[in-house]
Amino acid sequence: MQYKNNLTRNQVIASAAGTLEVLEAISKLGMPSSLGSIISATGRPKGTVHRMVSTLVNTGFVIQDESGHYFLTLKAWRIGSVAVQALDIADKGRPILSKLGSETGETVHLAVLDPSGGVVYVAKVESPKSISVQTRLGQINPSWCTATGRSIIAFNALVAQKVLSEELEKFTNKTITSPEKIQKILNEVRVNGFAVTLAENHPEMGGIAAPILDHTGTVVASCGVAIPAFRMNADLVDRFIPLVVDAANKISNLLGYTATLIDKEIAHA
Q1: pLDDT value at 133 more than 80
Q2: In whole numbers, what is the pLDDT of the chain averaged over residues?
Q3: How big is the CA angle at 217 (ends 212 and 220), to the nearest 5 degrees?
Q4: d(CA 173, CA 171)
Q5: Least confident segment among 64-68, 202-206, 224-228
């Protein structure tokens, strides 16, 4: 990868880390923060700090008033609030995820939407079987070709439009890359209330997932089971779908949205 101004990869990483350090310093100093106080807090040269603060201003994380003092905007809060919400959902849903893992014997995930348009796993229950799907917490997967992802973006038209407007990578010979075909699948997910994929993101894996709604009726996450492809036959899918949907409904209920309303919402979406 080529970097601007002939910067090396290490220099880019160091610059990004320094900018985040300045952002953290402003948050700890309180507002308003003068340039001098930020310099003292970070111990970095004036020119370096000024450049990093300017980056934060230009990207909308910080604003500068007429007196030259700096204030944090709500942009950082919006990003942080997504993480807090994800952790809250994961914490509340953990017992239900564990039960789903026991019922299916497969790896269970709870996923939320990442700002990139992908989905990230924020909770996981490992399968006890010797052959199972291997994933890690924090792992980001494409939303358009995974069951957990489709269960979320099917109910978020803006994100779906953004994702489908980009070039779609063909991960396996079964990956669907036609935006029109994927949109049709997403429409079916909205009607059915669950998503099923097989060998689209990985040739040896499949999944079944359902949306999780908060008290306002907004889809905020999804939960599902990840299954080795060789075990994922029609009988297993039919047996697992109601278990996954029930788990998603129960987590939604904990977030203030009842299972009955979820069923009605999905059925009439």
Answers
A1: no
A2: 84
A3: 40
A4: 7
A5: 64-68
Q: What is the mean pLDDT of residues 206-234?
A: 93
113: number of Cβ within 10 Å: 22
DSSP code at position 238: H
Contact in structure between 99 and 125 (CB atoms under 8 Å): no
Written as six digits, the tokens of 71 are 């204030």
pLDDT at 2: 44
CB–CB of 259/250 below 8 Å? yes
Give CA–CA dist 58/68, Å, rounded: 15
Tell me the one-letter amino acid at 240.
F
Q: Which amino acid is at 247?
A: A
Cα separation, 42 vs 48, in Å, equals 10
The tokens for 168 are 């779609």
DSSP, collapsed to helix, strand or coil, labels residue 175 as: coil
Query: pTM value?
Result: 0.68
Whether the pLDDT of residue 24 is over 60: the answer is yes
